[in-house]
Structures
1.
Amino acid sequence: MVRYLLKYLERKNSDSMAAQRPLDLLNRALGSAVLVSLKGGREFRGKLVGFDVHVNLVLEEAEELQGGEPAKRYGLMMIRGDNVVYISPAE
């Protein structure tokens, strides 16, 4: 009984940890609107349509924000991953 319980807990913990890996979180955000903050303070909002292991991002309907308001529209855009400070759901 104890052995069964330990195996169940190990499996449950490994499943929980796997779902919290950064790339898994990005994968769940595919097709959703995200806010991306870059080094230097620039911010972009758009629909996340792709990414890779370097966190290079592809956004559709991308727009640059200044003061939280759209300043310039870009359409399709790729953002180099080493410039990304954070990615969050957009509202």
2.
Amino acid sequence: MHKVLRRFLYAAAIAAVITAASAAGLTQGVLDGFQRRASDALFPSAPTDNRVIVVAIDRKTINLLGQVSPRRADQATIGRQLTAAGAAVVV
């Protein structure tokens, strides 16, 4: 009985160490490359469409604006500029 209990405790300890190391690696970004490759392998992307373009606001612009979301007037200006550039849909 002691032998079975000892094996179980060893297995539980090893599982706990592996889980803790994995969690630490994921939170610190150590496993980012592996995580991206695994994600790409498990969930391959669909074919891309050259007609679709995603426009986003980066951190530098947010810092320049001093806020996360541009004012409505700025959003309207951006929408008009995208439409003038040929965008069929602006969301």
3.
Amino acid sequence: MANIASDDNSVGGNTFTMNADFTNSGSGYLRLGNGNFDTYSVNVTLKNTGSRHIYIAYNGSDHSVARDFNTSNSGTGTSGINIDSGNTSTYPLMVI
């Protein structure tokens, strides 16, 4: 969970083996997987209540989610949840 006042950018390369719950309630964005692929062998939940975005599988290919993938956006302003929005790859995120 994060109350992000400034932007937070992860370059990726992470492997998640326990449920991954990401909440952004601040005025900055949360960007996951910007370049290197992330592997989620667990359930993933993205919840945005802030005024900016959550990005997952932002850039690069072969990001994967092996279980449930849930999103919820109730933020203000231009907030949202974006999947592979910075991506030019053929297979940016696989939900298997």
